[in-house]
Amino acid sequence: MATISLRPNALKRVQALSGIDDDHLFARAVGVSPSTLHRAKAGQGDSVRLIAGIARTFGYSIGEIAVAVDEPNSAVADAA
Fold first, then answer.
1. pLDDT tens digits for range 27-67
2. Domain boundaries, the chain
3. Which of 36, 41, 72, 80 could lock 32 by a disulfide, CB 3.0 to 4.6 Å apart?
């Protein structure tokens, strides 16, 4: 199974280039809650909504800021 994840340093780079230093304002600009942004910055998972919001708001393609990552499917791994 695959998931989508922000590229390393993409969030930091996009926020710096946007000129929006305040996390609450940046989260609002991309359409997510401040807690969603905080979790992404802490490496606790990237929201598809965050990735899409960054792409839409700042004109990036998904491929410029995110990458598909393979994750082992525990149900399949347990059956093997």
1. 999 999 999 999 999 989 888 999 999 999 999 999 999 99
2. 2-79
3. 36
Q: Which residue has the tokens 């998904």?
A: 62
pLDDT band at 69 (very low <50, low <70, confident <90, very high): confident
Rounded-to-integer distance, Cα 59 and Cα 52, Å = 10
Name which CATH class applies to 2-79: mainly alpha
How far apart CA 74 and CA 51 sit, in angstroms, is 25
Strand partners for 68: 4
Q: One-letter amino acid identity for 41? A: K
pLDDT of residue 79: 52
Q: Is this model's pTM higher than 0.85 or not?
A: no
d(CA 55, CA 64): 9
